[in-house]
Amino acid sequence: MKIFTVVSLSLIALTFLSCNTNDNDDLSNLTSKNTQSKSGMTSKVKMVDWQDGEEKVIIVGPNKQSCVGAYPMECLQIKENQEDNWTNFYDGIMGFDYEPGYEYVIKVRPEADPYRPSDAGFFMYTLVEVISKTEI
């Protein structure tokens, strides 16, 4: 009878301990930095402080580059500041009609999407505004 009581109490304690909520699981405060640490994988977008719902201004280059994500593809080239190096952007931007030969300054809004496939980035990106479009 003692063994049954000890095992039962252990299982009950384990159940309560596993129900601990973690404030870091809140999707409204995700950044690419903590998304990386949660998944254990390197973020495809090497930009700091992408936050769910926070609009961001980025520069889109005049040419796409060959890149390999889940499969070989053509990636937009983006950067946050003029002096930065171009970075592959593996995801699409909803509402953005890219034309080669133009450099864009655009405002986008990342939105966390926990239901996206595992081979896609954690955020969906939506075009908010085309600030400028310059022929190169």
UniProtKB/TrEMBL annotation:
Residues 60-133 form the DUF4377 domain. Residues 1-21 form the signal peptide. Keywords: Signal. InterPro entries: DUF4377. It holds the Pfam family DUF4377. It comes from the Bacteria. The keyword RNA-binding does not apply. This is DUF4377 domain-containing protein. It comes from Chryseobacterium nematophagum. The lineage of its organism: Bacteria, Pseudomonadati, Bacteroidota, Flavobacteriia, Flavobacteriales.
